Every structure is written in structure tokens, then in C-alpha cells.
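Appendix B. Chain record.
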Amino acid sequence: MSEVNLLVRVSAHEESIEALKAEMHKAQEITRQEPGCLRYQFYQDRKAPTMFYVQECYQDKDAFLAHANSEHMAAYLAATKDMVKSVDMHKVDPI
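C-alpha cells predicted for this chain:
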């Protein structure tokens, strides 16, 4: 199987920036320990601080699905649902 690569853009409510960053840090630490997780990194836009990006890379589809269906991701999504305006996810391939 081939790697699964994702780029995700997250738009946050301005008043939720710090709380969202705290949740992102928690999710990042747990996700990086998952089997098959090759990269999981959040970024904050310097010019637009309500915009965040996630770079994700998994060994294969099974590793990605295990992450997507994990308890900690369900907890992250529940904790951040009112902090986030929108999420735009793209499956990408390196060139």
C-alpha cells in the first residue's frame, strides 16, 4: 500500500485561538505515537492567526483509518467543534 498524505486547513473563531492550540498540541502528541503515523504537524498562519494547517502522513490507508477512527480523535473533534469555523481537507500526493 502507499502512503496517505493530507493537508488540512482549519479556520478558527478568534476568541478560541488559544484553547484550540492547546487541543491541537494534545492531539499532536498522541497522534505522533500511533503506529504508521509518519508525520503529524500543526501550523499557525503568521499573517492570519485564525488559520491553522495540518500536515499528515500515514504509512498506509489502514494507519490513516486507525487514526481517523481513534478515541482521541473523536475527543479532539468534540472538544474543538465550537472553536472551529470550517475545515478543508485535501488528500495530496508528493511530486
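Further analysis of this model is presented in Appendix C.
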